[in-house]
Amino acid sequence: MRLVFDKKYDIVSGEYIVRVRELDLDEELEAIVDGFDPKVRIRGEELGLKELTEKVFKASTREDAEKIMSEIRGALVETFSSLIARFKEAQSFNGSVVYEIDFNELFKE
After folding, report:
1. What's the CA gap between 109 and 47, in Å, rounded?
2. What's this model's pTM, rounded to 2 decimal places?
3. Measured between alpha carbons, how far is 59 from 39 in angstroms, rounded to an integer?
4. Taken in order 64, 69, 72, 76, is the CA torsion positive or negative?
5. Backbone angles phi, psi at 57, to 5 degrees
């Protein structure tokens, strides 16, 4: 996974602005999220991956802006770790099971 932030300090407003410019998933992660948009929780708000790249975060201090970027990274790691674990569990469980029961064996003495 590759995560690219754009960040700038607005001289006029005095705000620090952070935005996710790119979120590139490798083939394995693309396969896991194929067909749905996982949610990440950033600052108490649940955002889909597409929404995350469209959202602009503003902070009043440089430290808060750095915290926002750290929170986004952490939320993505947490979300994808959980999805990977569920995906692996599904791979290990999914399939068919066949049981053959021979009732004749039950009645043999």
Report:
1. 65
2. 0.78
3. 22
4. negative
5. -105, 135
* pLDDT by 10s per residue, the chain, length 109: 899 999 999 999 999 999 999 999 888 888 888 888 889 999 899 999 989 999 999 999 999 999 999 999 999 999 988 888 888 888 889 888 888 877 777 777 6
| 107 membership: H or E segment, kind and range | none
Spell out the residues 6+ positions from residue 68 whose beta carbon is closer than 8 angstroms to its own: 18, 42, 43, 57, 59
Q: Which residues are CB-contacts of 23 (< 8 A; sequence separation ≥ 6)?
A: 1, 2, 3, 4, 49, 52, 53, 76
CB 54, CB 23: distance < 8 Å = no
Residue 91 Cα to chain centre, angstroms: 19
